[in-house]
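Database export, one record per block. Field names are fixed; values are copied verbatim from the stored entry.
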Amino acid sequence: MGDKILEFVDITRSFFGVKALEKINLQLKEGEIFGLIGENGAGKSTLMNILGGILPQDEGCMLLDTQEYKPGGPSDASAAGIEFIHQELNLFMNLTVAENIYIHNFPTMQGTPIIRKREIIKRAKDLLESLGMEIQPTALLETLAPGERQMVEIAKALSMDARIYIFDEPTTSLTAKETTGLFNILKRLRNEGKTIIYISHILGDVEDLADSVAVLRDGKVMGSGPIQDFSIDKMISLMVGGSFKQIFPEKKSIPQKEKLLEIQELSQSGTVKDINFSLHKGEILGVFGLMGAGRTEMARMVFGVDPYSDGEVYIEGEKLPKSNPMASIEKGLAFVTEDRREEGLLMDVPIVDNLGMVALPDFCRNYTKIVNGKQLNEEAEHVSERLHLKATNLDVMPAKSLSGGNQQKVVIGKWLLKTPRVLIMDEPTRGIDVGAKYEVFNIINDLADKGAGILMISSEVEELIGVCDRIVVMSRGEIMDVFEKEKFTQEAIMRSAFRQGMIATATEGDEDEIK
């Protein structure tokens, strides 16, 4: 590691009278990976938004190469050699991969605004290949999987050849293979003298990658220093303000014989084929699979968002109409989408309106359709307390003012106001810290204990093993196996997910992982 490159001095920032950051003092060195951790709402993203020129600080200053650094916007940060890879992607779905990568610095024909398209395609191809990314530069972004889009966001930032890179939860949409590739890129950048700020809730990754670490809680630095001085237990203790030994709460519910959800021969060309399973009253049924397995596509078809060509979906024995989310909601079906920003929230709308979005008709007075605002606010406050939502003034603060994890709580909370019979949850804990995960698992357990059925899709095998009664494993649009609880092992589930020839395309590292 080299000399000091960046320093935060007494950085303070408030929102709606609440301090999000209070006198933050940190130093970063050239050529290091600096881990920044903390619970949702601890202030990590706020601090990075100040560094990236998105927000101004109320007090304090930043020093870049010992000189005061005061960006007036993201363009000033880029000019200073600072690039921000956001947790929520800043990409254009209707443009190609190459166009997204070079959106801020298109090469043009001399003296004209005409873009040299062949050049950006070649540049993008060379960049993607150098990063080990198997993505076509001419592909439209909307055709890519979430993990591939995340890698395009990373490639876009790396194309700027910055001095400091901020990675905010970069692995949340990535497969194991893509994550390994990203870590190799980060290590290469460090060896080239770049400084990496790495924000993650996956503490094992921070422990393996980082040279130094800082822990934030409630907008304050709880501890910082060389990573060797911070065990995972110590990091968790500093994050939550005490010891945190139990990751998964004890499950109280016992699955009943009564079927709440039944899927028969569900098929759609190119996505899923002959999907058959049942979800029982009081059961938490997990769905696991690698990227491209068809898990999300299946969930969207069941809820009625996307069409399917063959098969039937039944709720408590009653057949659901195809492609009709309203009918699904009326029958007690709920869907927590994996893409909270684009599909789960109205980002500019107050939190209370987001929480009441689904159940709004239930708060209308008689036939007048006038919303009972007082009752809605009371119920929203109750859900907010239940989820330990870190927010004040629910009827004023917009959803975009919340941290990513707290936004996810709002997505879940809007369905709790509806008291669903069947809750489909697609990656419900993505981007949520260890304490918030425990709270979400408690909510899931509570719903199951009250007789609801939970269909939980997750990329984390350990999470499904710790929470579920059974686990369905999908690969290439088909169900490979259904594991009963007594047969849960990470090895067996991973082996099942790699079936149908996928093991042949896995990297050597992936094979080692499942042996």
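Remark 1: The first strand starts at residue 4 and ends at 15.
Remark 2: Residues 133 and 151 are 8 Å apart (CA to CA).
End of record.
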